Amino acid sequence: MNFFKGLIVGGSFALKEFTEIKIKRRDEKTYRLNREEALKALPNKGREVLIEEAYKDIAQNLDIDHWENKRGPRPWEE
To answer: What family is reported (predicted)?
Structure first.
């Protein structure tokens, strides 16, 4: 009987350690970018973009007169 109690207690400590290692590895993979890294990753390469300019660019490329409503698939439909 004591063997099983020891197995349960020891197993919980082992699982705790494995979980901590998993969380540490996940945190190392995802990290916050600082401003310089974010600017390097963006396609503008540090160029300032005003909201009005971005709106005009998007509005010129949109065709709001000819559009089609597309329904996404539902889990219960095939």
So the answer is: Belongs to the COX16 family.
Distance CA 72, CA 57 (A): 27
Termini Cα distance of the chain: 53
pLDDT in tens, 30-70: 777 777 777 777 776 656 778 898 899 888 888 888 888 98
**CB–CB of 39/45 below 8 Å?**
yes
Enter the DSSP assignment of 42: S
Tokens representing 31? 């990290």
Q: What number of other Cβ atoms are within 10 A of residue 39's Cβ?
A: 13
CA distance 24 to 18: 10
Q: Around 27, how many Cα atoms within 13 Å sit in the side-chain half-sphere?
A: 6
Whether residue 13 contacts residue 6, with contact meaning beta carbons closer than 8 Å, is answered with no
